[in-house]
Design goal:
Length: 95
């Protein structure tokens, strides 16, 4: 779990981040357990990043997708209507 997220939750509970245990949708600290949903009502904000591991050097990654839209345009008014829309994306590692 992100360090910034832990800091925010522990701050709301008045404790240090290292004291906090997050398990089964609850924040547990000092014998007190609080649902994360209750804390989220007070607002939780955090930023994070994902860095590639060592496997990036050995297995190239690729992603691709396709999108389709059926659109109708009124010839008089110029009003547009999206009748159908579909998109599909995927990613993979290649050896």
């Amino acid at each position: 779990m992100g360090e910034a997220f832990r800091k925010d939750i522990s701050k709301q509970l008045g404790r240090e981040p290292w004291e906090l245990v997050i398990q089964d949708g609850r924040a547990v600290v000092g014998g007190r357990a609080v649902d994360l949903a209750e804390l989220a009502g007070k607002g939780i904000e955090a930023e994070g990043a994902v860095k590639p591991g060592r496997s990036e050097e050995h297995y190239p990654e690729a992603s691709f997708g396709a999108h389709f839209a059926e659109v109708a345009v009124n010839a008089v008014t110029g009003e547009t209507l999206v009748r159908r829309r579909r998109g599909s994306t995927t990613s993979c590692r290649t050896a």
